[in-house]
Automatic annotation (TrEMBL):
A Pfam family reported for this protein in Swiss-Prot or TrEMBL: ABC_tran
Lineage: Bacteria, Pseudomonadati, Pseudomonadota, Alphaproteobacteria, Rhodobacterales
SMART domains tied to this protein: AAA
Protein name: ABC transporter ATP-binding protein
Entry annotated with the keyword rRNA processing: no
Amino acid sequence: MIEIRNLTRLYNGIAVVDDVSLTVKTGELVVLVGTSGSGKTTLLRMINRLIEPSSGQVLIEGADTATLPAHLLRRRIGYAIQGHGLFPHWTVAQNIATVPRLLGWPRPQIDARVDELLALFQLDPAQFRNRMPHRLSGGQAQRVGVARALAAKPDLLLMDEPFGALDPLIRAKAQADLRDIQRRLGTTLILVTHDMTEAVDLGDRIAVMDGGQLVQYAPPARILTDPATPFVRDLIGTGDRALRLLSLTPVSDVAAPGRAEGPPIPAEASLRDALAECLWSGRDALPVAGGGVITLDTLRALARPR
């Protein structure tokens, strides 16, 4: 568990982060979102002390990070940035092994961990272990960057705009892969973005920053249906809130007994996916793989503000 208590960072007497407190539960994915200059990246970097707080505390599993040598603290926390930040003259394997090597892991253990992570990120170790970063696509380089951040099996992973440099198709796949891997590994993850759609799609909870202050901290559905301030309301917009709400729930959660014609929709698909399929195919109901049915009337009802 991560506890941020009254954290503040001053520059020339001005609070860039102003008395922020929040708790991140073990295994959660929390997204820090806000416009440029809102303080979200400064807040993230104070967690691993790349920026030292002016006041306040960060506690990881009850331990005050200020009591730990900064370089040792950073080796315990994975950190991935926009553009992946790979060392250009090192192979993929050497990049991923950076922190385990600093920690003195035995070579066989490092090699096994590199291959394990490459396989986890769907990169064949035989093909990618000795490849140089310039021979990777943008999506592959991003996956290697995240693999490097996870190499020493950190309990906490920090990510600063990790998908900002990717094109939309690769970005969507990278987001889905990250969420799947985060769930499988149970890693606590804090991610910074300026994109509210990304925050809603990824986060268990969203922390909205404005002018250095935390103005709302809540699950995505609460943010969408009950924005705490006019700034939050403007940030989420109003045009597609119904579709964003539908994207939060898998079909399996609301499938009802019954039968419907046509190809089934996967149980793990979102209600937004189901609505798109109904509209595209002209069907009023869809069978759900594994049993049950989802109807257009149900989707309409769930898309209304509650």
